[in-house]
Amino acid sequence: MSQPLITLYDVPASIPQPWAPNIWRVRFILNFKRLHYRTVWIEFSDVEATLRSINAPPTAYRSDGRPIYSLPVIVDSLRSRSHPTVLSNANIIAEYLEVTYPARPIFPDGSRAVQSLFVHYIQEVFAKPLLPILVPLTHQVLPERSQAHFRGAGAGVQLTGAQREQAWRAVKEQFDFLASILDKNNGADGNGVVVMGNDVSYADFALCSVLIWIERVSPHDGWARVRQWNNDRWVRLWNKCKDYMDVL
């Protein structure tokens, strides 16, 4: 019999490697903890129907009470084939994987609250200036059906040259600020690259997931810029995390 697996649901694209940062946060954890998993690819237009069919919990609710279904989602059959655990929301999944599979922890002792706050900052503040740049570029690399799913929502609207440069200046302000904070770790691992000072953790995976998004959808513009910022700090973080970038 084949070994039971954790199934990770992700969205396909025309580029060779996956791009979605919230899903990468989960993939990093699965790879770091050396858990057996597989990826199932579903287009955006099929997400709600697919997640309903596996009884995945909604990630939010609209003002009228209708549920919203989104990725990442995992189905964990490693512990029980007959009663698999189905979870949505990257942070909920991270907490579950840490508690259920405590070997190779992503939350060093006493760091859970601080890391949770850091990840919230990455998602709600740090990454926000990237949206007008990367969302249209991401739209371009989606399959046609998924592109059609987002038409009319402004996803395909490209910035002009001046608008793009202004947007990148706002992005760099966030990177510069974060670099100044992480520089306070200098002396811990010799260069202050990782958030917790010595070993990679969930906070680093959340941050590196944003770097992957930039590199996947804007390798010659966005990543070419970012990799040169802050004394190559972001390339060094990438290298710290690259052993956990497998796609299974």
Q: What is the first-to-last residue Cα distance?
A: 19 Å
At the first level of CATH, what is the class of the largest domain? Mainly Alpha
Give the CATH architecture of the largest domain. Answer: Up-down Bundle
What global shape is seen? globular
Count every beta strand, where a strand is a DSSP E run of 2 or more residues.
6
Stretches where pLDDT is under 50 for at least 5 consecutive residues are none
Report what the structure shows.
Residues 113-244 form the Glutathione S-transferase UstS-like C-terminal domain. InterPro entries: Glutathione-S-Trfase_C_sf, GST_UstS-like_C, Thioredoxin-like_sf. The protein has ten helices and six strands. With 248 residues, it is an alpha+beta fold. It has two domains: 6-100, Glutaredoxin (3-Layer(aba) Sandwich), CATH 3.40.30; 112-244, Glutathione S-transferase Yfyf (Class Pi), Chain A, domain 2. Helix 4 (112-126) packs parallel to helix 8 (202-217). The protein is globular, with a radius of gyration of 18 Å. The relative contact order is 0.15.
